[in-house]
Design brief:
By secondary structure, the chain is α/β, with parallel strands linked by helices. The protein has 2 domains: about 40 residues; about 300 residues, Spore Coat Polysaccharide Biosynthesis Protein SpsA, Chain A. It is about 40% helix and about 20% strand. The chain has 14 helices and 16 strands. The strands form 4 sheets. Strands 1, 2, 3, 6, 7, 8, 9, 10, 11 and 13 form a 10-stranded mixed beta sheet that branches. A hairpin with a 5-residue loop joins strand 4 and strand 5. Helix 2 runs parallel beside helix 3. The longest helix is centred in the first third of the chain and has 35 residues. It is globular and about 75 Å long. About 40% of the residues are buried.
């Protein structure tokens, strides 16, 4: 009969096994962190311009952006146009009822673009949110809210503005003119190099390519529109962000990140898809679906509707990082890696624990139930962008927008 090892023997054996395992665990973590840090630190060659030259339609909407327009944005647009070539660019800017001096800042830009010989349309409007809210309450985009009144939904309003910024593109495409890309520019700090890198994402082959945007680093900003490769919201708002292994692993390699949807400051999309026969355009979800307290970003739904998304892919380019203020931009562009060794280590494990111990199932269940109830209301009710939906209702108010 074998004799069981004494307590003292077991006490000696266990540390002998545990210590090498601990060392191996720490070693594997160190190797992974160093590998990722090296990928994020690798210097990138400067891009002088896009070869061959491309025709770019630049679209942008603005509201109360005077500070960033005067300090960063106008200069960045002028510098970008100079590199792309004034004859290769059409600039379309729509300002909507600002109460600061955004209109004057854009008039200054208009004058500078005129001197460059750029084709453009810069429209400023005196129509405020208050004016919009006093229009026909029976029109599309209005909804009965829990506050007991009809209110104007934010997303259909924004979709209308974005479509207006594309109006000249559609007209030019219908006349037979061609553009290679549409470049959507938010009110962000960016450089010409940022744009050139974005345009060159995946060697220029994509249905959409987006930057990463920051207002308060290290947290990324546009949580409303970004969905990972599997259609889920972020699992965390700091690096490496994603629940999907496909998206997360690409982020670790610092390569174009496959996602289902993105916007995040600057976006490039093929221009032809906005003209015949596709006629892609921005939209909100149906008012009849929104009454179930369901909303989706127009900047997410555009990817759900784009027939090129499945074949060419939608990507985040982590090498292109923009900011909604100067300090945010500077913080994400240090010398070397933009994510520190410590942030990589903590990010990896925080991401693991969140994936292990949280689930999107309840959010997904709510969305599916809402869409199912809506689809039974009327034959033909269908929503392409189920992955875009969230449990929210957003309406326009005089000084911006509000949750209801």
């Amino acid at each position: 009969m074998p004799i069981a090892p004494s307590y003292s023997v077991r006490r000696i054996v266990r540390p002998r096994v545990a210590r090498p395992l601990l060392i191996l665990f720490l070693l594997l973590n160190a190797v992974q962190v160093l590998y990722i840090h090296n990928a994020l630190s690798r210097p990138e060659p400067s891009i002088e311009t896009i070869q061959p030259p491309q025709r770019i339609y630049i679209a942008s909407i603005h509201w109360n952006n005077e500070a960033i327009l005067r300090e960063y944005w106008n200069d960045a647009v002028v510098a970008l146009v100079d590199v792309l070539g004034p004859r290769n660019v059409f600039v379309s800017i729509l300002e909507s009822g600002s109460w600061d001096n955004s209109k004057d800042a854009l008039r200054d830009l208009d004058y500078r673009l005129e001197k460059q010989g750029v084709l453009r349309n810069i429209t400023v409007s005196d129509t405020t949110h208050k004016d919009e809210m006093e229009k026909n309450h029976n029109a599309q985009g209005w909804i009965q809210t829990a506050r007991g009144q009809k209110e104007l939904r934010r997303i259909p309003y924004l979709a209308r503005l974005r479509n207006e910024s594309l109006r000249h593109l559609v007209q030019l495409l219908e006349k037979g003119e061609t553009f290679d890309k549409v470049l959507f520019l938010n009110d962000v700090v960016f450089t010409t190099q940022d744009v050139l890198k974005l345009l060159n994402t995946n060697n220029g082959e994509y249905a959409a390519a987006c930057s990463l945007d920051y207002a308060r680093p290290p947290h990324y900003y546009d949580t409303f529109a970004l969905r990972d490769h599997d259609g889920y919201e972020h699992v965390m708002q700091t690096w490496p962000y994603f629940r999907s292994g496909t998206s997360r692993n690409a982020m670790k390699r610092h390569s174009p990140v496959p996602v289902s949807s993105c916007w995040n400051g600057i976006v490039s999309m093929p221009a032809a898809v906005f003209g015949p026969p596709t006629n892609l355009h921005f939209r909100g979800v149906s008012d009849s679906l929104a009454k179930y307290h369901v909303e989706g970003s127009e900047c997410c739904l555009i990817h759900a509707d784009n027939p090129l998304s499945a074949s060419l892919g939608v990507y985040i380019n982590p090498r292109v990082r923009v900011g909604y203020n100067g300090p945010a931009y500077d913080s994400t562009h240090p010398k070397g890696s933009w994510v520190s060794l410590w942030q990589i280590l903590i990010g990896l494990w925080q991401n693991r624990f969140r994936r292990w111990f949280t689930t999107p199932s309840l959010k997904e269940l709510f969305k599916k139930r809402a869409v199912r109830r809506w689809s039974l209301e009327e034959r033909g009710n269908h929503e392409n962008g189920g992955f875009c939906l969230i449990n929210e209702m957003q309406v326009l108010v005089e000084n911006g927008w509000a949750h209801v």
